[in-house]
Design brief:
The chain has 13 helices and 6 strands. By secondary structure, the chain is mainly alpha-helical.
């Protein structure tokens, strides 16, 4: 793998506690990954072009959209809420289904994804943060995958406890066979279904349902790390970079990031006076209704209100009037008054 070195003009790191140190650092670009991501986006652009010509059947476009929702839930509802933050619990058959969805999105196995995200939370926007937004929008969006990891990340990731993840046989199985599963579920299956069931051209099915859908889902996730740490209001904590970005929340279907960093254990990843404001929350609540999900964790309204009044930027309605927050419709929830 050929690397070339270029000087990085990093801003001083924001120290989390006194553990992350600021040290001289030379960014190393991994050019093979740069070429890979350029190639990936060219295939996606061709798929995008096919979406707007007569080449792609309507059924294929609907199929690609459903895969975006399915894979997106695998990331946001699965790797993020279920495994990384332990914000709710699910029985074995549902965990298998969610692991399939997470593999369709092909963003690394559950174990690795959750480990990196825990590092992101503990050392948010420091040199130990894998998608440190202080290194710029491009870096936090996609650039972090085209560079060698910062030595502070490599050092501090070892301090994160991920032993619980390996207690789940679903996580272990997916990790063991991840490469084969990802090729099958992210690329082959999305193209084969339209070709087999409604006679779509295999080429069109591949570029639309596999490549374009895959890259679109990637950017929807990445926007949380970039726009969700740059743009928008900070109703819960004005002292942190994570923001309630409308752009990020729109593509991620309801991930409000200032709230999430303030209360990472809340399965709703949002607080808008209703638990029905996120696609992923609707799905989780549906599975709870079926009896497949339990122990959904929420944060008490008074805790949210207290945080808003104490550290918010003044844009939240709680700063002006009494708390309308109500989680009484969630019968099985447990409360986590967690704050960063
Ligand atoms: Zn974040
Ligand atoms: Zn998170």
């Amino acid at each position: 793998m050929e690397n070339s070195k270029s000087k990085s003009a990093l801003q001083p790191t924001s120290v989390s506690g006194d553990e992350v140190t600021s040290m001289p650092y030379t960014m190393e670009i991994v050019w093979s990954k740069v070429v890979f991501y350029i190639y990936l986006h060219l295939t996606a652009l061709y798929g995008f072009y096919l979406c707007f010509t007569s080449a792609a059947l309507t059924a294929t476009l609907i199929w690609a959209s459903l895969l975006y929702l399915f894979g997106g839930f695998g990331i946001a509802g699965g790797a993020h809420k279920l495994w990384c933050h332990r914000a709710f619990k699910a029985n074995l058959p549902l965990r298998v289904l969610i692991a399939v969805a997470q593999t369709v999105a092909h963003q690394g196995d559950i174990y690795t994804w959750s480990w990196e995200h825990r590092v992101h939370h503990k050392f948010s926007d420091t040199d130990a943060d894998p998608y440190n937004s202080r290194r710029g929008f491009f870096f936090s969006h996609i650039g972090w995958m085209m560079c060698q990891k910062h030595p502070e990340f490599t050092r501090m990731e070892k301090t994160i406890d991920v032993g619980d993840l390996l207690q789940d046989p679903v996580v272990v199985f997916q990790r063991k066979y991840y490469t084969s599963l990802a090729w099958m579920l992210c690329y082959a299956m999305p193209a084969a279904v339209p070709w087999y069931f409604w006679g779509e051209s295999l080429t069109t099915a591949f570029f639309v349902a596999s490549m374009f859908r895959y890259v679109f889902t990637l950017h929807a996730t990445w926007l949380t790390n970039s726009a969700g740490h740059s743009w928008g209001k900070r109703p819960y904590d004005k002292q942190i970079n994570p923001s309630d970005s409308l752009l990020a929340a729109s593509f991620s279907l309801g991930e409000w990031h200032n709230y999430h960093h303030a209360f990472p254990g809340d399965y709703r990843v949002a607080e808008l006076g209703s638990s029905r404001t996120s696609f992923h929350v609707v799905v989780i609540d549906f599975f709870a209704w079926l009896g497949l999900v339990y122990d959904r964790k929420t944060v008490r309204g008074k805790v949210v209100r207290g945080r808003v009044l104490r550290t918010g930027d003044g844009t939240h309605s709680f700063a002006l009037k009494d708390c309308p927050f109500n989680s009484g419709d969630i019968k099985d929830h447990s409360v986590v008054d967690d704050e960063i």
